[in-house]
Design brief:
Number of strands: 4
Order of helices and strands: HHEEEEH
Strand order of the largest sheet: 3-2-1-4
Number of domains: 1
Radius of gyration: 17 Å
Largest sheet: 4 strands, mixed
């Protein structure tokens, strides 16, 4: 998962939940995949890091594999989502990318499952106001 994020996001936007630079080179809310490289090259010389198809990552979460980057049929905000999926699922929306690590030792921590923290108690969550919701909903608007 961490290798994917580093390859996908420009260095100045790796902490951003949705990267405007990445989204400009993506294929979201569409009817089909586009030709490889159809949106141009990314910040690190990679193509099609978000949109087009979700990509399997090495990580396991809750006994499931993680897919990253979103697919052509997904909304743009899924660019930063990690979606747990059964590891044997086959779909036109999921593919994989091969990489070559510069240092093989970099792979060691990524084979371990991601530990899921316990959920907070039910009274932890409070309803938000309409004003708060409007602010939150702006994160899911496309403005480019």
């Amino acid at each position: 998962m961490y290798h994917w994020a580093k390859a996908a996001f420009p260095p100045t936007e790796i902490g951003a939940p949705i990267s405007p630079v990445l989204l400009k080179r993506s294929n979201f809310s569409n009817k089909s995949v586009q030709e490889v490289g159809g949106s141009g090259i990314g910040a690190h010389g990679t193509y099609d890091m978000a949109g087009n198809i979700r990509e399997w990552s090495w990580n396991i979460f809750g006994g499931r594999g993680l897919t990253l980057g979103g697919a052509f049929s997904d909304p743009a905000y899924s660019a930063s989502s990690a979606t747990p999926s059964p590891r044997f699922v086959r779909s036109e929306l999921i593919g994989f990318r091969t990489i070559r690590l510069l240092n093989p030792k970099d792979m060691n921590p990524f084979g371990n499952p991601i530990n899921r923290p316990p959920p907070p108690p039910p009274d932890y969550y409070k309803p938000m106001t309409d004003e708060q919701f409007k602010i939150y909903a702006k994160n899911f608007e496309l403005g480019f």
